[in-house]
């Protein structure tokens, strides 16, 4: 989220922005004892993969933290909840017999978030509705109840649905960089008033998401 990006940028000291030849902007600075490299991936798997690889290739981060929004796909999820991806799976990938649905052939059927980082996120945000769960990723904004039910049937433990986490997780897996994806729930697709949920969400969401991200960074 652009507003969330601005919130994170505001906590950085000694900032320096670099625009790469590709047009990608990277904002570097310090937050406490940590050096932070901040960038915005853009929408969808291809944009997310390109930016993640560029980030890793140029700056060699110790960890990658992805923060953004997702639709809630479980009856227990509510708007403004934060789902931390214990695992990430593609809901729109099928490579044929011999592979699990969602598995890119030759890669894991699910990409696991870093357990140590997940534990730190949950500990830093005790008392908030922040919990671990499966994030399902695909190149489609899910609004239709039938599509939602198809994803949930394939992945009964799915908690959130987004468009970038899978690609970021795949690049980090290939590059052997620990990662976590943190997704604040913007809406619950398929319910009555779904679009109103989504449009009303944006005013408060960046600050809520940033508060959780800031707690996480401060406790790393």
How is the secondary structure organized here?
Layout: H1 2-10, E1 13-19, E2 25-31, E3 34-38, H2 45-59, E4 64-72, E5 82-90, E6 111-112, H3 115-124, E7 130-137, H4 145-154, E8 158-162, H5 165-175, E9 179-187, H6 194-201, H7 205-218
Parallel strand pairs: 4-9, 5-7, 7-8
Antiparallel strand pairs: 1-2, 2-3, 4-8, 5-6, 5-9
Helix pairs in contact: 1-7, 2-5, 3-7
Oligomer: single chain
The coarse overall form would be: globular
What is the name of the CATH class? Answer: Alpha Beta
Strand content: 25-35%
CATH superfamily: Nucleoside phosphorylase domain
Strand order of the largest sheet: 4-8-7-5-9
Total number of helical segments?
7
Distance between the termini: 22 Å
How is this structure best described in words?
This protein has 220 residues and is an alpha/beta fold. It has one domain (63-218): Rossmann fold, CATH 3.40.50. Helices cover 35% and strands 28% of the residues. The chain contains seven helices and nine strands; from the N terminus they run αβββαβββαβαβαβαα. Strands 4-8-7-5-9 form a five-stranded mixed barrel, surrounded by four helices. Strand 1 (13-19) and strand 2 form a beta hairpin. Helix 1 crosses helix 7 (205-218), helix 2 (45-59) runs parallel beside helix 5 and helix 3 (115-124) crosses helix 7 (205-218). The protein is globular. The model has no long low-confidence stretch (mean pLDDT 89).
